[in-house]
Amino acid sequence: MKILITGGSGFMGSNMIRYLLRTYPEYEVLNFDKLTYAANPNNLIEADGNPRYQFMKGDIADEIAVEEAFANFNPDVVLNYAAETHVDRSILDPKAFLMTDVVGTYQLLEAVKRHGTGKLVQISTDEVFGSIETGAFTEKSPFEPNSPYSAAKAGGDHLCRAYWVTYQTPVVVTHSCNFYGPYQYPEKVIPLFITNLLEGKKVPLYGDGLNVREWIYTEDHCRAVDRILHDGKAGEIYNIGSGEETTNLDLTNKILELTGNNESMIDYVKDRAGHDRRYAIDHTKLSNELGWEPKTSFTEGLAATVKWYLDNKEWWVPLKSGEYEDYYQKQYVDR
Ligand code: TYD
Question: Distance between CA atoms of 215 and 244, rounded to whole angstroms?
Answer without folding.
Answer: 6
